[in-house]
Request: fold
Amino acid sequence: NTRNVAALGGIVSVYYGGTLIGALIAGSLADRMGRIKAVVFGCLWALLGAVLQASAYNITWMCCARIISGVGVGAIDCVVPVWSAEVSSHSARGAFLAIEFFMNIGGLALAYWIEYFAYLDPNHEMAWRTPLALQIIFVLIIGVGINFFPESPRWLMKMGREEEARNVLKATRDVDVEYELKGIKKVVKYELETSGANHYAAMLFPKDKYSKQLRWRVFLAVWLQIMQELVGIGVITVYAVDLFQDAGFELQLSKLLAGFNNISYMFSVIFAVITLDRYGRRSTMVWGAVAMAVELLIAGILDKYAQIQGPSQRSFGAGVATLTFLYTATFGATWLTTPWLYPTEIFPLNVRAKGGAWSVVGWSIGNGIITMITPFLFQAISYGTLLLLFGLNIFCIPFIILMYPETAGRSLEQMDTFFEHGDSWNVFKASHNIRDKGIDDWRWMKKMNTEEHEHLEAGRRMSTAVRNPEEDEKDARMSWKKRPVYTFRRQGSNAGIM
Reply:
């Protein structure tokens, strides 16, 4: 009934209110205390949330526990992609994060099968408490294990720990690290002078050109995460059992299909290891959306006939199941990783963790809305839900083509080139503006290949981060003259705001 549908949607979606809060806290904490400590902070909240969920005795208790657990997961989701991007090299960031998401979806599949077998327990109370309690083991592994990982070399450099940053780069690179270290050092020097923008309010309500660039980056990060949910993955994975049941399958078979779909989902992420760095972020997302739109359109049409009693009902249901598997695999190969990777690449060092926080805010908003309304959609329009998702995939494509610059093949320090010199929300127009200013790295519609990157590293002008010392000193003198008033107030306490 309608009341149960509302309760289901509410219990699922309230979790994302917690992830939003956790991300905003961790984004600030990671800039001040480091990426590793911020992850530990998230684990402590997730641990408390898991204990409370497993011991819940009413809906109010469960909702509060899910919010607390969400705070922890939001903190972890905010910081881990940032840490990954800062530790990995420019040529392997996509593959690095894709491997992480392979493990992430592997955990999702494992959790589902634990839940499935726990459901077979005749003690129905333990059937749902046991999977929730098992979270504690994995949270403890993360919370303890993360302390044996290296801190971000870029954060270490920001804190003045240059030798530690050099050691981390040497341990994670098979090439000379001095050039990269020099680039990071120059970026840190420049961004310390603009540290007045190192808080959430300045990123949304800019007072100077630098802050306006940050606001545009915030929009790109938040909107990309919302689009990730609009293409429909939350509908398909969270409510997969309901989808298969609507297609005519019995409850037990629907649960099995949902479990096998999660396994297929996990292995599909392997393709992202190849596609993200080889073909770039833009092409991966555009063609992924096209493929998912086609799959959802056909699935929606078949689902209409699968709900009609008759000799062909089973065949139509099988078609829906097949296309559901294809859709989930396509998403895993294209859209799963990119919206998490992209924000870690476009934000400058001094607000990168906060940029990751804004990304999780977008993910929380998208997930919260979708998981809340999906039960009502299945109840109201049934197979029309898949057709609606088809339209939303088509809706997202122009945004990717027109608004999102290509980041593949470029170092994190190169990203400022686009936002400092593009002067347009349109990627094509911004690229021409950058070219007209005499900057070699102006083709932001496509990825930068290895030869182009080596050519630029040989001495070409890539960004304000890697210019000669004379230009740096000139900019430093000018920045003191042009700096807004609120930055002067913050300059005296740089150590405290990190």
Observations:
- Residues 460-498 have pLDDT under 50 and may be disordered.
- The two ends are 51 Å apart (CA to CA).
